[in-house]
Amino acid sequence: MSRDHVQSAQRPGTGAEAPFLELLARGASADAYEQPVLLARAEGLPPERIRALEQAKRLALHVRAEMEGRRRREAELSALFETAHDLAGLRDLDAVLQAIVQRARSLLSTDIAYLTLHDEAAGDTYMRVTEGSVAARFQQLRLGMGEGLGGLVAQTARPYVTPDYFEDDRFQHTWTIDTGVRDEGLVAILGVPLMIGAQVIGVLFAADRRARVFEREEIALLGSFAALAAAAIDTANLLTETRSALDRLARANEIIRDRSAVIERASDVHDRLAELVLRGGGVHDVAAAVSQVLDGTVEFTEADAAPAAPLEASRAEGHAVRHGDDWIAAVTAGGELLGALVVRGHPGLDPVDQRTLERAAMVTSLLLLARRSAVEAEQRVRGELLDDLLDARDRDPRVLRERAARLHADLDATHVVLAARLDGAAADADQEAAARRRLWSAASHLAATRHGLAAARDGGTVLLLPLEAGDTATDLARRTARHLGTAVHEPVTVGASAPVEDLTGDPDAVAAAYAEGQRCLDALRLLGRAGDGAAAEDFGFLGLLLAGDRDIAAYVERTIGEVVAYDERRGTDLVRTLDAYFACGMSPARTKDELHVHVNTVAQRLERVGRLLGDDWQSPARALEIQLALRLHRLSSRP
Questions:
Q1: What is residue 176's predicted lDDT score, i.e. its pLDDT?
Q2: Residue 530: C-alpha distances to residues 165, 431, 438, 463, 546 (Å)
Q3: Which residues make Cβ contacts (< 8 Å) with residue 639, sequence separation at least 6?
Q4: Is 144 helix (H, G, I), strand (E, B) or coil?
Q5: In whole angstroms, how far apart are CA 235 and each of 89, 197, 238, 242, 476?
Q6: I need a surface site. Which of 44, 211, 230, 568 has the fewest CB within 10 A?
Q7: CA 625: distance to chain centroid?
Q8: Which SMART domains does the record match to this protein (predicted)?
């Protein structure tokens, strides 16, 4: 202050307040207010003037503090208003949180501001957003309830402040929190709770990297910020929940629309299936109708053409079963498997569409039963025609051909006669009769689809089926055994005759072929090959010997049993050597070439055979018996 100002303070009529009013007008710092007093003392002014200056200084400083406080409150109120306005326009939670910490750091003029939120699942608070932070470890901190300053604020719902965090023992210091705070270099920390009602949802912080005392006004200001922040966070969360609810509502509407479409499709398929039944449609018409409704490929297949495991599962459960990318619904009637409806390449079949497929399978079974009722008369006619071919010697060939033509059968084509019989054990006579009826039904259905004939006979079924080009009687027998066994769920053994070309010209042709098929059937059962199929060509001249009740196993055991048992115990090849020896005309030299062994090895094996079978095993009578036993032993093994 100048000497003129001091002199003016000394002049009569001039108040002691003048220099301080000038300082107030200039907005001088608080230190400048000491200058007038110091100069007055240096000039040696009277004590009363110095006391007057002291009094004026105190009043001026008080006025200055009031003016500073008002300016600060105006700035704070303005900042709060601007913050509230800014937060009201934000809809994204991340943007809201970032705006809060930026404004808090700016208003309190701190090095850093940050915010933590409560994690209900973990029971702690975690660092959500920071402003001014430089330490990665600090930015990833989690504070348990009661840990550190922030954990204490979250636990007590009260603000806490410290001028020097590491020297303050009010807080529960942990290695993790202290390490993060030390990395950030923080010293003075102020934390206030973010409250929604009585619930603490987080903590808002302002901190400096040097010692600092936060004034009560600063604590209140940050508390006001926290109130705005909590309201903004709550609003953002409500908006998020509203959006989620709207999204869920939109999805629910989509589901309702989808369900409505599904119900319409189900109604559509019901109407279509009802129309098909009324106008006498077939199973393939049902498949085509369901294909249109399900927007996929639906096929009806025979039981033996569908995958066995899923088909059986569908039959047992009464529901459609998924198989890879397909769905399979069994078509059954009274426990009998009639076929399957298969949806191709449609893995995402929903429950309503599954029920549509199952309903279609039921309609298909009804149509099949209705068709069966219609064709049973035709089957009886087919059976009667086959009975006439087997029994009537004085039949007219022309009449037989005409009857066959009405059944779409051609008696001039080459046929095979097959004798089929069940091999499963029945619990009682009723079950056995039911099983025979199922076998006859399945055989009749097969005969109708193959343009053949079928009839129940001798406790089993006889079939007359055409032989296609390139096919053999053996192949037809085995295929028929598999088909009938699958249809009735029991092993079915089938014996076939050699091909028959003149069914009507020779009165005994069909009967002789049937007798031959029966002999093959008996041979298969005697050899333990139940459930298999074979023709006379598979047995050669042995087919004439295997009828009746001969004990094949006992004959083989009696003739070459010692050799077979020796091979089984020692892992040797005596049976194979015997086969090769007889096949090579009983020549050891040719036998060793056939077996690719040394002639001495052949001699040693034959010597062992002699010790097992006796010295006369190569005599003509014994050799014939041994060769027959070898042949039977080989045929006893299923191909």
A1: 92
A2: 92, 19, 18, 18, 15
A3: none
A4: strand
A5: 11, 13, 5, 10, 80
A6: 44
A7: 62
A8: GAF
Indicate the burial class of 536 (C-beta count within 10 angstroms; 0-12, 13-18, 19 or more): buried
Which pLDDT does position 6 carry in this prediction? 43
Looking at every residue in the chain, the average pLDDT score rounds to 81
Under 8 Å CB-to-CB from 431, ≥6 apart: which residues?
none
Between CA 120 and CA 485 the distance in angstroms is 65
- Read off the DSSP letter of residue 109: T
Chain segment 446-468, per-residue pLDDT in tens: 888 888 888 888 888 999 899 88
> Contact, 331 vs 339, CB < 8 A?
yes
Pairing status of strand 492-496 against strand 533-535 = parallel
146: which 2 tokens? Answer: 């009661």
How far apart, in whole angstroms, are the C-alpha atoms of residue 453 and residue 405? 12
Token pair recorded at residue 508: 């005994």
Please determine, for residue 3, whether its predicted confidence score (pLDDT) is greater than 60.
Answer: no
Token pair for 513:
């072929």
The CA distance from 78 to 84, in Å, is 10
Average pLDDT over residues 522-546: 73
Give the C-alpha distances (Å, rounded to integers) separating 48 from 55, 160, 395. 10, 47, 162
- The pLDDT of 23-45, averaged and rounded, is 81
Residues paired with residue 207 on neighbouring β-strands, in sequence order: 112, 189
**599-613 vs 552-570: helix axis angle to the nearest 10?**
130
What is the Cα–Cα distance from 535 to 612, expressed in whole angstroms?
Answer: 35
Amino acid sitting at position 450: R
More confident residue, 310 or 334: 310
Helices 473-488 and 429-449 cross at an angle (nearest 10°) of 130
DSSP for 455-522, written as a single string: EEETTEEEEEEEPPTT--HHHHHHHHHHHHHHHHTS-EEEEEPPPB--TTTSTTHHHHHHHHHHHHHH
> Integer distance in angstroms from the first to the last C-alpha of the chain?
127
Confidence of residue 598 (pLDDT cuts 50, 70, 90): very high
Q: What is the pLDDT of residue 240?
A: 76
51: its two tokens: 């006391």
How confident is the model at residue 363, as a pLDDT? Answer: 78
**484 burial via Cβ count (<10 Å: 0-12, 13-18, 19+):** buried
Q: How confident is the model at residue 504 (pLDDT cuts 50, 70, 90)?
A: confident
Amino acid at residue number 327: W
**Rounded to an integer, what distance in angstroms lies between the CA atom of residue 155 and that of residue 165?**
18
What is the CB-side half-sphere exposure of residue 516 using CA atoms within 13 A? 24
Give which of 353, 359, 373, 360 is closest to 299, Cα–Cα.
Answer: 360
d(CA 418, CA 535): 9
pTM listed for this prediction: 0.38
- Count of CB atoms situated within 10 Å of the CB of 325: 11
Q: Between β-strands 124-131 and 142-144, what pairing exists: parallel, antiparallel or unpaired?
A: antiparallel
Token digits of residue 185: 């270099």
- Strand order across the 326-333 sheet: 297-301, 336-344, 326-333, 321-323
H/E element holding 540?
Answer: none
Report how far residue 278's alpha carbon sits from residue 450's, in angstroms, rounded to the nearest whole number: 28
Long-range CB pairs of 584-593, under 8 A, 24+ apart, other chains included: 586/618, 586/623
